Amino acid sequence: MLQISNLTKSFGTLQVLNGIDLHIKKGEVVSIIGPSGTGKSTLLRCINYLEQPTSGTITIDGISISPETQSRKRLYEIRRKSSMIFQDHSLFENKTVLENITLPLISAYGYLKADAETKAMNILRTIGLADKYDQYPYALSGGQQQRAGIGRAIAIEPKVMLFDEPTSALDPSLINEVLELILSLAEKHMTMLIVTHEMGFASHVSDRIIFMDHGVILEDGTPDQIFTNPQCKETEDFIKSTIHRINY
Fold first, then answer.
1. Burial of 198 (0-12, 13-18, 19+ CB in 10 A)
2. Cβ count within 10 A of residue 247
3. d(Cα 1, Cα 23) in Å, to the nearest integer?
4. Pairing between strand 63-65 and 208-213?
5. In what order do the strands lie in the sheet with 14-24?
6. Please, are residues 136 and 96 in contact by the beta-carbon 8 Å criterion?
7. Collapsed DSSP state (helix, strand, coil) of residue 2
8. Is 188 exposed, middle or buried (0-12, 13-18, 19+ CB in 10 A)?
9. Region(s) of the chain under CATH 3.40.50.300
10. Rg of the chain's alpha carbons, rounded to an integer?
11. In whole angstroms, what is the distance from residue 115 CA to residue 196 CA?
12. For residues 22 and 58, is the Cβ–Cβ distance under 8 A?
């Protein structure tokens, strides 16, 4: 479903990603953990081509792109295959919840307004926001805003969902409602790549855990292996430093 081959990314002389190789199967949930500033979010942004990689190939559902093969058409094709959910939900503040979901369906995917609204309302019912359809983002809690952002991502029926620390900007009391929604997507076998600092959630929801440090993947294994029997010292030290966040 998602294949990353020898991906690198530099900002000037700063090497952020250094030869990333990763394969994620259809329906698999993979969480990326590791210290801050180690390239986790940059990796997601490169997959979605919000950041152009310096080198390497990304393939999603049979569509491949690299800096050498990049074109407007190829960018459009690869972005149709994935949705990215950001830390700050990135909703349009001047649009209602319903409009936030229907806008990409109408403008980018050619839906008629009535069809887009029907689909959006079905999604809002699924994520528990049907009664908020005519509200603007400022009237919602942080958790509700993030759920609306996830609803917008679901609407385009992506092959892969990319979550960039989806709960990091939320108050602790609002985190669980977002995590429960992501868990429900995992139970529906949505292919997901999740950058998170919620160790307990990562352990609970993931088929695999990836540990990154200094722009490389140091360890890739099952949650049980990563959290109870890590194979490298860097992973072990990181897990020990975050042990208080293992409960979910």
1. buried
2. 10
3. 8
4. unpaired
5. 14-24, 2-11, 55-60, 63-65
6. yes
7. strand
8. exposed
9. 2-81+160-245
10. 18
11. 34
12. no
Measured CA to CA, the distance from residue 208 to residue 30 in angstroms comes to 5
Helices 172-187 and 142-155 cross at an angle (nearest 10°) of 20
Global pTM reads: 0.92
- Whole-number Å distance between alpha carbons of 84 and 158: 10
The domain defined by 2-81+160-245 folds into: Rossmann fold (3.40.50)
At 243, list the tokens.
Answer: 């042990």
| Token pair in block for residue 239 | 């897990």
Q: Which residues contact 65 (CB under 8 A, 6 or more apart)?
A: 49, 57, 58, 59, 74, 75, 77, 78
Q: Write out the chain's pLDDT in tens, 248 residues.
A: 999 999 999 999 999 999 999 999 999 999 999 999 999 999 999 999 999 999 999 999 999 999 999 999 999 899 889 999 988 778 999 999 999 999 999 998 899 999 999 999 999 999 999 999 999 999 999 999 999 999 999 999 999 999 999 888 788 878 888 999 999 999 999 999 999 999 989 999 999 999 999 999 999 999 999 999 999 999 999 998 886 555 54
| DSSP code of residue 156 | T
Query: Cα–Cα distance between 170 and 186 in angstroms, integer?
Result: 21
Strand-strand pairing, 29-33 and 216-221: unpaired
